[in-house]
Design a protein that fits this description.
The structure is a single chain. It contains nine helices and 15 strands. It has helices at 21-34, 79-83, 141-146, 152-159, 165-168, 214-233, 240-263, 272-277, 283-292, and strands at 44-50, 56-61, 64-67, 70-72, 88-90, 94-102, 114-118, 121-128, 132-140, 173-174, 180-183, 187-189, 193-194, 197-199, 205-206. β2 (56-61) and β3 form a beta hairpin. It is globular, with a radius of gyration of 21 Å. It has two domains: 40-88 and 188-298, 3-Layer(bba) Sandwich (FAD/NAD(P)-binding domain), CATH 3.50.50; 94-183, D-Amino Acid Oxidase, Chain A, domain 2 (2-Layer Sandwich). By secondary structure, it is α+β, with helices and mostly antiparallel strands. The model is unreliable at 294-300 (pLDDT under 50). The strands form four sheets. Strands 6, 7, 8, 9, 10 and 11 form a six-stranded antiparallel sheet that branches.
């Protein structure tokens, strides 16, 4: 029950990064604008209707946009895809309770990612600029409620039961009002592509955050999605189905790796959280769905 250490020196992928998402997202938006895209900020998706076989009319707040083809990048909510009848399939009900702390000036908290498994889930911590620290507890939704973690006080009580993290947080001060609860389950849409649309990133599939693959997956999806959309707009609708297949195959590969990661923890075999994750997920059916998918994506572009 001692802390381990994974050195990036032994990783073929090089060093990992703690990414400032706000700055990174702003960088991507600027890059899109510089490439000729019109970036609309301060908008909200309200709904969509078919536009007489020539695409869609997207209702936004404010305004309306007409599009021949739509890429749904609205995150796990998959707002557009759900308007077109797609439904999300969940493989678990993982939830994260996240809070922020201020570290004392003398703190030596590592700049590496910190993980600690406990009976009802696992903890994550990472240092941020300005002597701040983000701490998250991942557990199933019903276990999180039973543990009292949905409140900042309850999270602190549960944090006190950790062996290593509580020692690392000695002298740290919880930032009032910083608690956030978010669903972080592994899931996918039952239809990732349709007639003149596709879903990308978390809209298409979501991974357990223990994967640390969210940003990579989104960027990889985006490259494949761009090729599929470009082919469709050029008059070739056959690129959508291979794109869907690639997303499902990528998810199946991740589910196999997920089973491996959770299988490493064997201290609490009777714990509901770990027992659920020691049952293999239906990877074979996922691959079969990817190889035999048949969607309306083959309709001819207008």
């Amino acid at each position: 029950d001692e802390l381990g250490y994974n050195d990036f020196l032994f990783s073929p992928h090089g060093c990992g990064w703690h990414l400032d998402r706000r700055r990174f997202d702003a960088f991507l938006a600027r890059a899109a604008a510089e490439a000729g895209c019109e970036v609309l900020t301060g908008t909200r998706f309200l709904g969509a209707e078919g536009d007489g076989g020539t695409g869609f009319r997207l209702r936004l707040a404010p305004g309306e946009v007409k599009a021949r083809f739509v890429v749904d990048a609205t995150g796990a909510g998959a707002r557009f895809a759900r308007c077109r009848g797609a439904r999300r399939r969940f493989h678990d009900r993982l939830v994260c309770a996240t809070a922020f702390f201020e570290l004392p000036s003398e703190s030596r908290f590592s700049r590496l990612t910190f993980l600690e498994a406990v009976k009802d889930g696992w903890w994550y911590a990472a240092r941020l600029p300005g002597r701040r620290l983000v701490v998250a507890f991942a557990s199933d939704s019903q276990l999180l409620k039973a543990a009292g973690a949905p409140s900042q006080e309850g999270l602190a009580v549960h944090l006190a039961t950790t062996r290593h993290l509580k020692a690392e947080l000695a002298g740290a001060t919880s930032i009032a009002g910083s608690l956030q609860i978010s669903a972080v389950s592994t899931s996918r849409l039952d239809r990732i592509v349709g007639d003149a649309w596709l879903a990308v990133g978390d809209a298409a599939s979501t991974y357990d955050p223990i994967s640390a693959q969210g940003v990579y997956k989104a960027l990889d999806n985006a490259l494949r999605a761009a090729d599929a959309a470009s082919s469709w707009l050029s008059g070739d609708p056959t690129g959508l189905e291979p794109y869907q297949r690639s997303v499902l195959e990528q998810l199946a590969t991740w589910l196999t790796h997920r089973d491996y990661l959770y299988g490493l923890e064997q201290r609490w075999p009777s714990s509901p959280f770990w027992a659920r994750r020691h049952r293999p997920l239906p990877v074979r059916s996922m691959r079969e769905a990817g190889s035999s998918s048949s969607q309306s994506s083959a309709s001819q572009p207008p």
